[in-house]
């Protein structure tokens, strides 16, 4: 009886120690998240955004259709005093929905230097030169799908900003399907069946 009680107490102590250790290493991610974290860091390196793994924080669990999906940075903006919010997406748009990550720097100067990454500055300039943005990520819009026999008009949510003639990703109202559609005018997109 004493041996059984001792065994239970030892197991409880080991469990508490493991839980405490897990609490001390809250930045440690599960193995699947580690690979996603490495791919996010690779995308940051490609975008020439100086960052270290310890600065990175996922804001929500990733929902990947392809576990080996590769990411790219689509935008970065200031957030609070010394952090920035990065908009990211999969290179192949069918692999995941866009997501956000947070980067924290020791001070606002380091953060501001990252905000001036050459790749992002060039992307912003191209967007402004291409024309006025007619739809923005998160906007509700109307999608017309048609072929020779059918025409379907359905509400969608835009997943990217878009100018006239640009093809962007949109999500169906029931959130089950992601399509690529061409921006025709403000709030109106066109696709094919």
Notes on the protein architecture:
It is elongated, with a radius of gyration of 22 Å. Mean pLDDT is 76; it is low at 1-31. It is built from 4 helices and 11 strands; from the N terminus they run ααββββααβββββββ. It has 193 residues and is of the alpha+beta class. It folds into 2 domains: 31-129, no CATH class; 133-192, Roll (SH3 type barrels), CATH 2.30.30.760. Strand 3 (83-90) and strand 4 form a beta hairpin. The chain has helices at residues 2-24, 31-46, 108-115, 118-130, and strands spanning 56-58, 71-79, 83-90, 99-104, 133-135, 140-146, 151-158, 162-163, 167-172, 178-185, 188-192. The strands form 3 sheets. It has a 5-stranded mixed barrel with strand order 6-7-9-10-11. It has a 4-stranded antiparallel β-sheet with strand order 1-4-3-2, covered by helices on one side. The chain has a two-stranded antiparallel ribbon with strand order 5-8.
Low-confidence stretches: 1-31
Q: List the total number of helices.
A: 4
**The biggest beta sheet, please?**
5 strands, mixed, barrel
Distance between the first and last residues' Cα: 72 Å
Q: What is the count of β-strands?
A: 11
Share of residues in strands:
25-35%
Secondary-structure map with pairings?
Layout: H1 2-24, H2 31-46, E1 56-58, E2 71-79, E3 83-90, E4 99-104, H3 108-115, H4 118-130, E5 133-135, E6 140-146, E7 151-158, E8 162-163, E9 167-172, E10 178-185, E11 188-192
Parallel strand pairs: 6-11
Antiparallel strand pairs: 1-4, 2-3, 3-4, 5-8, 6-7, 7-9, 9-10, 10-11
Features:
31% helix; elongated; 4 helices; alpha+beta; 193 residues; SH3 type barrels; 2 domains; disordered N terminus
